[in-house]
Amino acid sequence: MASASKPQIGVETETLRRTGKLRPARQLRSQRSLERIIEALDELLETKTFEEITVSEVCKQAGVAVGTFYDRVGNKDALLEHLRARVYAGIVAQIDQAFARERFVDLELRELLGINAREMVEMHRARRGAIRAIIVEARRSAAFAAHARELNAALMQRVTAVWLSKRADFRPGNAQLLVRSAFLMAAGFLRETVIWGDLWPGETNPDRVGADLEHMLTTFLLPAEDAGLSD
Amino acid sequence: MASASKPQIGVETETLRRTGKLRPARQLRSQRSLERIIEALDELLETKTFEEITVSEVCKQAGVAVGTFYDRVGNKDALLEHLRARVYAGIVAQIDQAFARERFVDLELRELLGINAREMVEMHRARRGAIRAIIVEARRSAAFAAHARELNAALMQRVTAVWLSKRADFRPGNAQLLVRSAFLMAAGFLRETVIWGDLWPGETNPDRVGADLEHMLTTFLLPAEDAGLSD
After folding, report:
1. Where are the domains of chain A?
2. Looking only at Cα atoms, what is the longest distance across chain A?
3. Topology of A1-74 in CATH?
4. 1.25.40.10, 1.10.10.60, 1.10.8.420, 1.10.275.10: CATH of B10-74
5. pLDDT, tens digit, 9 for 90 and up, residues B134-159
6. Which residue from A48, A83, A115, B31 has the highest number of Cβ atoms inside 10 Å of its Cβ?
7. Which one of A138, A156, A199 has the shortest CB-CB distance to B145?
8. Which molecular-function annotations from GO does this UniProt entry contain (chains A, B) (predicted)?
9. Nearest-CA distance from B193 to chain A in Å?
10. What are the CA-CA distances from residue B192 to residues A6, A144, A190, B53, B186 (Å)?
């Protein structure tokens, strides 16, 4: 095939081939700049709000020229959308692993809830700054809200599916409604403690959050006689 | 006294008295315009986000001229600050009543938690739009965050004080840490269901939220053998 097509190569095709050869390297550099810029925003969000961060700070942190930023990203809002897409993809991948049903086939509901509780705390802690910025934007912009709704539905579906796989251990009641409320309690508690803990008085100790979340999920989903924990 | 001061009234004092007579009426009209403008924002927030609402919409809803708005309020952000101050004052007054210890002296912890749960749902429902706008702003602006921190501390103090007055009914553990976590679980659940319910799949039935909140608080704070509810 290569020899059959070769005689037809003219000047235009040759140019395309040459730019084709060059493009991957340029695209790769460009892609790396974008990655570094997104990474820089993610890092800055650990200590500042999105409002407080300037484009020039992001560029300095990323080690890219401001011109590169405007070329590759456009503006600050577009950068937050890049970060959102990256963070959401990371969360979905991690949830798929953490809530894979195969992990829990041999466990009882209360053992499973203990593992889930601690892993959920860790997932929030690891992305605290980015999640703060994305939640705020999801509550201001309709486009972000639509993405948030989609992610929320996917997360609730995956987490509650694992819990429902142990519904034989549940207290009496509508199992679908029980897991929905349990999930929203967990999500709300994690947000107020791990994500927005600085807006509440007192210290937020992550081990404590994990243990309390486990206790809450266990006592909410299991019958009183089975929920008794060791504390 | 009135007759003793009368002879001293000169032209300037007379002018002051006259403007003094006029001022109350003008001030009252002005105060009423401001109240109507704040009220209008509050109403519009039931169906729209703060970002989506324009000054001219607020004025139309309030029945005031746009000029009056700029005279009395200044700008949209200043209006949100007025609404925040009003909503916070209302919340504190309502919490002071709802969590007055005298209400609960003859009740057991589980009865008290049932009443608290339902009243907390209602307090959130009644101010849903305003709370949405204020939460978003508290997470963007340092000034709003400082106010939110102050309110959060006051609310947590009042609510947990009532729960701690029944600490004899608690499960074993550090009572201060137990009520802090219970309060944050309740706050988080109420926010995700009543305030931001539209970002999650499924219907949010307020009666269900109240019953689930009661169950969660009861099973989280009481020993397993005492927590058993009727469902």
Report:
1. 1-74, 75-231
2. 82
3. Arc Repressor Mutant, subunit A (1.10.10)
4. 1.10.10.60
5. 998 888 888 889 999 999 999 999 99
6. A83
7. A199
8. DNA binding
9. 7
10. 63, 17, 11, 23, 10
Count Cβ atoms within 10 A of the Cβ of residue B105 and give its class: 0-12 exposed, 13-18 middle, 19 or more buried: exposed
Q: What is the largest CA-CA distance in chain B?
A: 82
A200 with B152: Cβ contact below 8 A: yes
Query: How many CB pairs lie under 8 A apart between chains A and B?
Result: 133
Residue B38: predicted pLDDT: 96
* pLDDT tens column, B67-99: 999 999 999 999 999 999 999 999 999 999 999
Contact A31, A72 (CB under 8 A): no
The CATH number given to B81-231 is 1.10.357
CB contact under 8 A, B191 and A191: yes
Task: Tell me which residue in B145, B173, B227 faces A219 most closely, judged by beta carbons.
Answer: B227
CATH 1.10.357.10 fits A75-231, yes or no: yes
Q: Which residues of B touch A220 (CB under 8 A)?
A: 212, 215-216, 219
